[in-house]
Amino acid sequence: MLMPSLAQNPALPCRPGAPGLLYRANDAYIWKGRVQTLFVKDTALRYQYMGEYNVVRALPLSPAEFREWDQNVKVVWARAICDMGKFSKIWARVGLRLKLGREPTEEEIRAAVQKRKGQRNGTKDYGQVPAIVKAYEDGDEVMGVWNMVCIGFKEDLLERIQETAAKFKK
Question: 2 with 68: CB under 8 angstroms?
Fold first, then answer.
C-alpha cells in the first residue's frame, strides 16, 4: 500500500485510474511487490483511493527536471530529508560534502548518521534545506522516479471506506 502526498509528488494520479509518477528522494528504493494499492493525500490532507497500480522504475529525474519543480515541492522534499530517518544518509552526504569538500566515505556517512541520532532529542533541524535542494539541482543527489499505471480498482474496498466514513460523520 502506498500513501504519498501531492505536496511531495505533484505528478501522482489526479483521479482514480489515471496514470502518474511517484518520486522518491533516492533511486535505491525497493517496493514490496510491483502492484500497490494507492491512496493519494490531497492538499486538504484527505486521502483518496485511486486504485491498484503497477509501479515500475523509470529513469531518475535529471538535475534540469528537478530545477523545473516548484520551489515549494523542493522545500517539502528537503524538509522530509531533514526529518525522516529513512533519508538520513542523504542528509549526511549533503552535510559532509559541504564540510569536507569531497564525496564522503561510507564510514564517514555512518558516523554522521550515528552522531545525529544522539543529538536530535526530537528537535527538527532545517538548516540544510537550501544545501539539500542545491544537491538535487546540481545532480549530486538523484530523485528516483516510478511510472504508475492503474491495473484495477477494488469497488468493494471503496464501498467499505465510504461506509466507515459515513459512520464517523454521524
Answer: no
Nearest by Cα to 139 from 60, 71, 85, 77: 60
Q: Which pLDDT score is estimated for 45?
A: 80
Please list the alpha-helical segments (H only) found in the chain.
Answer: 63-68, 71-83, 88-100, 106-119, 129-138, 155-169
Distances (CA, A) of 148 to 13, 18, 142, 151: 8, 9, 19, 9
pLDDT under 70: residue ranges of the chain: 27-31, 118-124, 169-170
Task: Measure the CA–CA gap between 64 and 89, rounded to whole angstroms.
Answer: 23
Residue 3 cell numbers, joined = 500513501
Instruction: List the strands of the sheet with 144-152, edge to edge.
Output: 20-24, 144-152, 47-57, 35-41
